[in-house]
Design a protein that fits this description.
The protein is of the alpha/beta class. The protein contains nine helices and five strands, in the order βαβααβααβααβαα. It has a five-stranded parallel sheet, with helices on both faces. The relative contact order is 0.19. It binds adenosine-5'-diphosphate and magnesium ion.
Length: about 240
């Protein structure tokens, strides 16, 4: 896969069991085989502390208030962004991340009904404004959710069919309106889905951004503009992490 320069944040999104982890692993292998420096990570998680938050979030024993859930996702995100994403991007790596801010808009906003502008504000605070270069949303019909069961369901996989429908519809709707985001038909073979992801990532790394009226004509790969500006950080002075 030819590329002009490395350093990009690529996010895989989609409902539970849509194939994010599988496709992330394929993509990472592909990019590494081309000699790129690649970091594979996920949300919630990706650092020791954030993985501990993940375990709480996915534990089916807990009954969780939507707002408490939202704040834990954002806490994990703040940690992961500072500890993992920012250093990797500064070092020029291609980062493949399973889930990011779009998941929160969909699950906590569209599916749980929390205020979307509030979620956008918290996303901005938790990430310091770090945006993906490309978000790929894997879309699958609900029947695949039942077919693709492989292990004991986590707390979110135990949600109702209605919840899953809202998640899918939320992703399909936001994939059309969010910047640099594409919907991918993931109701196909692993190979067919991988091929489409590979093609879109290649286009990005070649310097051809996803067609996007917000940023038309600008290169998506300007690592410096993505680095967190001190003014965008919620913390100042003592205790600041970057
Ligand atoms: N395109 C596909 N067709 C059939 N099964 C798939 C496909 N993609 C993933 N799977 C299977 O579905 C299950 C969930 O996939 P996974 O990658 O873990 O999804 P996610 O990370 O989105 O929850 C796994 O057992 C995986 O092998
Ligand atoms: Mg997964």
């Amino acid at each position: 896969m030819a590329h002009r320069r490395p350093g990009a944040l690529i996010v895989l999104e989609g409902p539970d069991r849509s194939g994010k982890s599988t496709q992330a692993a394929f993509l990472v292998r592909e990019l590494r085989s081309r000699g790129l420096s690649v970091v594979h990570t996920r949300e919630p998680g990706g650092t020791g502390f954030a993985e501990a938050i993940r375990r709480i979030l996915l534990d089916p024993r807990h009954k969780v208030q939507p707002l408490a859930e939202l704040l834990l996702y954002e806490a994990a995100r703040a940690q992961h962004t500072q500890e993992r994403l920012v250093p990797a991007l500064k070092a020029g790596a291609v980062v493949v991340c399973e889930r990011y801010t779009l998941a929160t808009l969909v699950y906590q906003g569209e599916a749980r009904g929390l205020d979307i502008p509030m979620i956008r504000r918290l996303n901005r605070v938790a990430t310091g404004g770090l945006k993906p270069d490309l978000t790929l949303v894997l879309d699958v019909p609900d029947r695949e959710f039942h077919r693709r069961q492989s292990r004991r369901p986590d707390r979110l996989e135990l949600e109702s069919r209605r919840f899953r429908r809202r998640v899918r519809e939320g992703y399909r709707r936001l994939a059309k309106t969010e910047p640099r985001t594409a919907l991918i038909d993931a109701d196909r073979s692993l190979e067919a889905v991988h091929e489409e992801i590979r093609r879109r990532v290649q286009r990005l790394l070649n310097g051809n951004p996803h067609p996007d009226p917000w940023r038309r004509g600008r290169s998506p790969l300007t690592p410096c503009r993505r680095l967190i500006k001190p003014t965008a950080l919620p913390l100042r002075g003592k205790g600041r992490t970057a």
